[in-house]
Predict the structure.
Amino acid sequence: MDDSQTMRGDAPDDRSRRSRLRQVLPAQPVLSGFSVAVGVLLAIALATTIAGISTVLISIFLGMFLALGLDPAVRALERRGTTRAAGVAIVAIIFLGVVAVILLVLVPATVRQITAAIEAAPETIAAMEASTWYRTLEANLGVDLSVAISEGLRSLTTLSSFLAISGGVLKAGFGVIGAVSSFVMVVVLTLYFVASLTSVKAAVANLVPQYRRARFTALLEEITQSVGGVVAGGVTLSAINALVVLLIQLAVGSSIPAVMAIVAFFITLVPMIGSLVFLLIGGVATLFVSPTAALVFVVAYLVYIQIEAYVVTPRIMGRAASVPGVLVIIGAMIGATLLGLLGALVAIPLTASILIVVRKVWIPRQNSRTMPPDDGVLTPLG
């Protein structure tokens, strides 16, 4: 070390310490802090905007989700010599017909059955209270179940409870109007996405560099086909499940078979978990008919669950949903926690899409790395 370095205090340790500080501390602290603050404000504004238009985003996402489920039907018509436009028109007409049937047939029938169930509720509860199994259960629990049931029904049917649950008549009315408008928007978006799915995929592929476009297009096509197969297969399985529930409920003498079938359709859209959840719901609901009817329903539906798992599902889903069962359960739980039933429904196709990316992109890239880096330092797995 020479005298000039000693006088300036420029020791090697000091210089290395200052270089490390320059790496940690920004060169212009005020400007950097202001930039960070502006970035945080923009992030908060973006999050607030997304939260404000969350209903619209969910409608768009659900429309695309349903369009991917209808696309396999269009492809099947194309394989039979039908043009794309004609196939889209046929599928759109069938889709609108199903929507019309739901609105004009199932909804009035459901309302009638709910009304009849409410009117017959006192007689049903009285017959249940007079049964031997009810008295035995009441004696074993040591609780007056009749008083508890009557108090619960009275609290639910009062006007104040209704206002507390619905948040007010005005809010409930706006909620109904919003639900109807969202339903119409989802139907319109579904038809639009079905008609323009090919052009949408081409537009997304144009955002990728030319040298990667062919591989990206093939990967996107496989993902959309897989998601479409999962959605179409899931809807078909739920429709069969709802039909089985309807037949069983009619056989045991239930007063609300259509309601139970509709509930079964929506709950069993969630694979694996949905059938088990509805087994509990259907068993408890059928218990109001009679314990024997509940036992018959549970046994019959449990038999169908086994048939569905080992016979029906492999034939309908085929290779479309090659997702491990544990990932199905985890994905459904995470989706239900984040977005409720909609999150549980879309979790399985998203999981299948992620697995396709992992199998087609990540694993081949890792398999191509047969030699360690040149510097001899192994790259961490993360």
